[in-house]
Amino acid sequence: MSRLTLSTSTGFSRRTFVVLSLAAGVALGALGSAQAAPKTSLSLGMSVEPSGLDPTAAAPVAIGQVTWQNIFEGLTTIDKDGKVQPQLAESWVISPDGLNYTFKLRQGVTFHNGEVFDSAVAKFSIDRARASDSVNPQKRYFASVDSVETPDAATLVVKLKSLTGNFLYWLGWPSSVMVAPKSAADNKTNPIGTGPFKFVSWAKGSQVELAKNPDYWDKAGTAKLEKVTFRFIADAQAQAAALKSGDLDAFPEFAAPELMASFEGDSKLTTVIGNTELKVVAGMNNAKKPFDDKRVRQALMMAVDRQALIDGAWSGFGTAIGSHYTPNDRGFVDLTKTYPYDPEKARKLLAEAGFASGLSFTIKAPQMAYAQRSSQMLQAMFADVGVTLNIETTEFPAKWVADVFKGGNYDMTIVAHAEPMDIDIYARDPYYFNYKNPAFNEVLKKVDATADASEQAKLYGEAQKILAEDVPALYLFVMPKLGVWNKNLKGLWENEPIPSNVLAQVEWSQ
Amino acid sequence: MPETGVSSFAFPESLKGQDMVALIVRRIAGLVVTLLIVSALIFLVMDLLPGDPASVMLGTSATPETLAALQKQMGLDQPLLVRYGIWLGQALRGDFGTSYTYSVPVAGLIAERLAVTVPLALLAVFLSVSLALPLGVISAGKRNSGLDYIVGVVSQLFIAVPGFWVGLLLILLFSVSLGWMPAGGFPGWSAGFWISLKALLLPAIALALPQAGVLTRVTRTSVLEVMSEDYVRTARSKGLSERTALWLHAVPNAMVPVVTILGLQFTFLIAGAVLVENVFNLPGLGRLAYQALSQRDVVVMQNVILFFAGLVIVMNFLVDMLYLFIDPRLRAGAR
């Protein structure tokens, strides 16, 4: 700033200007180190660049990780423990039959472009997400909405066709955020929300810049940082170099577990290992022989030493799971003991199913490191029980989606399922597991039928148990959240109950 | 300077203006036809690739209904030929389409990336030439000396070591340990010329070294060949010193193969720098192409590949033209 003033207000020659500005820089530097005022900017790294900045228009989690809770907010939100909290809806009343939700909306909220948030805007946002030409990636969660009414500017009534126990939770998702009618169409490139940060610029292929929203509706929740820069760095070595050189202040989801040890002893940085919602599961084609036989699937599960797999594939980071659920999720039950590692029993069970002389099939593994390395570990473990696993690398996402996900043309595959609380995928039909279990579907229906949290937790426990017992997919581990950031940085989430980088409360301690 | 035998770089009498124009027109017509064929091929190949951009965008939760809506929005519900026709028609009017992933016009996207890639490539070529030419010529002039041997080993080493690995070492030394340079990334030209140039310096070195290795070898071989030509011997027998004969006679005439390699290298630096761009996290054209491929951003792919194809053709054309200036014998042939 001082340089700019000097150059415009005086007629010095270029050289004088450079010398002066250098001197000013040195002086400022000396001053800075003496006073050490806390920094107010943050440079944060992400592996994947978002494809557009509208979380209501595309699925990639990177979109939400930049925009959710920073630029955009929802009627409800999800806190760092994965619990639903009110946000733009102050409170709500659910009718006794569970079908009518009456929201009391917060007053005095404006979008970054000055548009006022009221019930008409909320109705616009919900109707946009459920419209026939909607491209909302989670449109299914609005399927049960029958009508949206606006009795007055501060009241929104949503009527449902069928019971949807998780409705308030889905409303907290990135894909359910509130958007302004005038700016919604341009949110992909110029996102306008109600959040504590405003969008400033996007240098494609490089970085997104946000600045504090000084007019944020919640004075207590106003952003503590003035400026945030999201930088997109795909290469793990480049990520590590940027952190160590101080170019980056934080990498909440560092990409390479094998490089984590290189941060040990770094005086500036700290490492924080948490849980994500990414469940690494080796899905099987339950409609295809021999995977239509439960005993084969159970035997394969028992052939897997989960801890050894985590050690080999992901440097020992990650939590073993026994079902399609993470420790972040409400009602989590540890089911890794349902079919623990037991090669002897696995061989017996395979023999019982008619595969005493062995079995051979192919895993379609995406090119990502976790999938490739886990597949190699599985290959070795299966070999122990007489099963030959061929690994076929399948480009993710495009070819995987076409072949496995939509085509259902596979024996086994392995991917990290990113969506939080997505245990209901086993009840979807069609879905690539081709798993059909009416008893499981029944439990999930009961979840929808209640909005009571403890009742839901109990039911989710039942659902987890059915999957652990049936093994439609091999449940391996939850991807760790490998956080690396400056020691003086406070307020970043340790776990990630929903893919996000919630930054309003992040600040420098010195 | 006819008495020294150095070829004059002005147009010779033998190549008339109209011949030159005809030659250029022929080449441009060829260029247009090639681009048309390439564009059709790209369309076909992209269509045959498994996976469609709409399902990549919508992920695993999308309903078939949502997918259909997005495909319609992207125009993917149209048959291949119709899509090609629409694209071609728009391209002829200067509208190259809108990226699926970024939702911005592709032309601007490519221009943004070129603002990184072209300066990077130019800087790398500059570094590579200023290192390789003197080394190659000196090495040829003092062939079989200790110096020649050292240059030979060093240039072999440059060729053998991959650029991205050199990049990693440079980052470790200059960014992580010494803290003199940014560890990658590009601030954008708006942030200041020198800051941006600084960001490009390490990647340019990483790119330049392997190129310099090749170029040194080619220069040395080419100069040596020319040195054994009769006219160099004649020049020597007329009393010119070895050094004068080398720099005035041999070097200019040894430039044809060097320029050929340079042309190839420049194209490679624009199109093939993706690994180095990755290590240094530079928003260059190579990374755009890679990203677009994995996202099945067909619109971006088409235009980037077409751009590459066009670039190769144009570079070849320019190199051919350069030959005409360097080598008088080719000028007679151009008629």
TrEMBL record, chain A:
InterPro entries: Peptide/Ni-bd, SBP_5, SBP_5_dom, TAT_signal. The keyword Transmembrane does not apply. It comes from the Bacteria. Residues 83-421 form the Solute-binding protein family domain. It is found in: Periplasm. It comes from Rhizobium lemnae. SUPFAM superfamilies: Periplasmic binding protein-like II. This is ABC transporter substrate-binding protein. Gene3D superfamilies: Dipeptide-binding Protein, Domain 1, Dipeptide-binding Protein, Domain 3, Periplasmic binding protein-like II. The keyword Signal applies. Residues 1-36 form the signal peptide. Keywords: Signal. Belongs to the bacterial solute-binding protein 5 family.
